[in-house]
Design brief:
Largest sheet of chain B: 7 strands, mixed
Order of helices and strands of chain B: EEEEEEEEEEE
Strand content of chain B: over 45%
Number of strands of chain B: 11
Structural class of chain A: mainly beta
Number of helices of chain A: 0
Radius of gyration of chain A: 13 Å
Radius of gyration of chain B: 14 Å
Structural class of chain B: mainly beta
Order of helices and strands of chain A: EEEEEEEEEEEEE
Oligomer: heterodimer
């Protein structure tokens, strides 16, 4: 199984500040045939199911604010919130769909400082 | 707007079978663009992919659960179902049904997710 490891596990950031969440996979999720990284990011607010933010590591889902961005390739990925808003308080998960079984990171909890 | 709704017992006794159904609305259930999955989340633990089914009935399971899991589909009702046998307390979790996207013949990201249903395994 591909193990997804996120860091940090939690962070508290002031409103308007930048948030950076890292995700490392135990093996590459870059598919050479199409040069795409098979990695997604989700946001889970309290009491809600996860919501898709980013797929193919850097493609923002329709309707997701542009303060959310994804980057990285191979085994190292980053989700960035450029300017934190109160409604961004949530747990964020990375997800690899490169191989079966699909696996998720342990989550990163984002709070307001 | 696509909606997925889980249904089934919230309490299952140890050694019995957990059965859940997901009803899909607002989407072309039989489209070859989508696949249908179950994912669970034990309290305080990471999300775990259980398996998936295509509208054709083709399935793929997490090897860690494969011996106990069956996922089936009923296209006439736009439903897919999960059966997990011989449950223990370790199977206590919130169970989500989700839609996945098929691109280039591969299973890709999930969107949307059902609201989730808590299943507790206890006598």
């Amino acid at each position: 199984d591909i193990v997804m490891t996120q860091s940090p596990e939690s962070l508290a950031v002031s409103l308007g500040e930048r948030v950076t969440i890292n995700c490392k996979s135990s093996q590459s999720v870059l598919y050479s045939s199409d040069n795409r990284n098979y990695l997604a990011w989700y946001q889970q607010k309290p009491g809600q199911p996860p919501k898709l933010l980013i797929y193919w590591a850097s493609t923002r889902e329709s309707g997701v604010p542009d303060r959310f961005s994804g980057s990285g390739s191979g085994t190292d990925f980053t989700l960035t919130i450029s300017s934190l808003k109160a409604e961004d308080v949530a747990v964020y998960y990375c997800h690899q769909y490169y191989s079966t079984p699909q696996t998720f990171g342990q989550g990163t909890k984002v709070e307001i400082k | 707007q696509v909606q997925l709704q889980e249904s089934g017992p919230g309490l299952v006794k140890p050694s019995q079978t957990l059965s859940l159904t997901c009803t899909v609305s607002g989407a072309s259930f039989s489209s070859d663009t989508y696949y249908w999955s179950w994912i669970r989340q034990p309290a305080g633990k990471r999300l775990e992919w259980i398996g998936r089914v295509y509208a054709s009935g083709s399935t793929k399971y997490n090897p860690s659960l494969k011996s106990r899991v069956t996922i089936s589909v009923d296209t006439s009702k736009s439903q897919f179902s999960l059966k997990l046998t011989s449950v223990t307390a370790a199977d206590t979790a919130v169970y989500y049904c989700v839609r996945g996207f098929i691109v280039g013949g591969f299973d890709n990201w999930f969107d949307p997710w059902g609201q989730g249903t808590l299943v507790t395994v206890s006598s």
